[in-house]
Amino acid sequence: MAQDALDFADALGLERFAVVGHDWGARIAYLLASVRPERLACCAAMSLGWQPGKPPTPPLEQAKAFWYQ
User: Fold this and answer.
1) pLDDT (tens digit, 9 = 90+) per residue, 11-33?
2) Which residues pair with 17 in a beta bridge?
3) Residue 23, SS3?
4) Lesser CB count within 10 Å: N end or C end of the chain?
């Protein structure tokens, strides 16, 4: 998805651009900022970090519902 953002910026003729990412988009914003910092004018990432502690193993049905993660 980060590459998609870069490709889109290229298609628009943007050498530098601002990026705002929320939740999963924050991961994309972090990646863009770390891998291609010269392309970003600024970066805002809004996401809650993982809370420390051992996560419980969810029931099988719930684990199946998390397939996209």
Assistant:
1) 999 999 999 999 889 989 999 99
2) 40
3) coil
4) C
Q: How many CB atoms lie within 10 A of CB 54?
A: 5
Q: Residue 13: CB partners within 8 Å, gap ≥ 6?
A: none
The pTM of this model reads: 0.65
CB-based contacts of 45: which residues, under 8 Å, 6+ apart? 20, 21, 22, 25, 26, 29, 30, 33
- Condensed to tens digits (0 to 9), the pLDDT of residues 28-62 reads 999 999 999 999 999 999 987 656 667 677 788 88
> Using CA atoms, how far apart are residues 69 and 6, in angstroms rounded to an integer?
23
How many CB atoms within 10 Å of residue 57? 8
